[in-house]
Specification:
With 238 residues, the protein is an alpha+beta fold. Helices cover 29% and strands 35% of the residues. It has an eight-stranded antiparallel barrel, surrounded by four helices.
Length: 238
Amino acid sequence: MSVEFVSRPDFTRADAGIVKASTWDVGTPERQRQAVEAIRDAWAGREWPQPGPLSYTVHAGEDGRTLFHYSQWPDEESHQAFVRAGRDARNAGIDAAVPGIERIGPHTYELYRSASLGGPDGREPGCVVIVDVEFEGADKARQRDWVDGVFEALGTDPAPAPGGIGGHFHVSTDGTRVLNYAEWVSAQAHIDALAAPGSGVGSRTPQWERVRNHPGVTGGGVHRYTPALSLRPGVRGR
């Protein structure tokens, strides 16, 4: 099966049972660029693996040293089968081109809820903001309560940020983390939203205050990325 280049993952697909998210630290902007090219060559130069991911996406960190990886899978069994049969050959080519990559993760998630943040249809993200939220101990109900609180805050915000396209909220399968894959028209739009009145993205409302002071949250982070590469298996017969 061939490889198809696309602009972004399809968050609506019903066959994506889990998501794997990880970060690579490659050290410099030049190595960042080389690593993206090596990933492209490693995947485009081969048939799509069977078993394999439903999609594979890479974003380049604004810090000039990291790459964020996001892949959709039918289930954990398909991911483990790929690890056993197909991952090492691809990683060997990447490591030969860019030695010394530090791989962090992956964490395993399920997509819980997605939100459209308004604006004209069909906008392509120029920036992806990854928001990680960490909780004290495993509690799947608490994960979902936090996400539901964000949706209430978004729905009642009197002045939503104009540059937001959408947010895709994932809960980790171990009950300890939430990941928001937030799409923005540009990095500057996100910077402007952070600079607006309030604390972070969102107005000064009781709903947002409840999100920011949610019990059990112990940490997390916000990181901006530029979309670099998104792949999926090609349609048979093309």
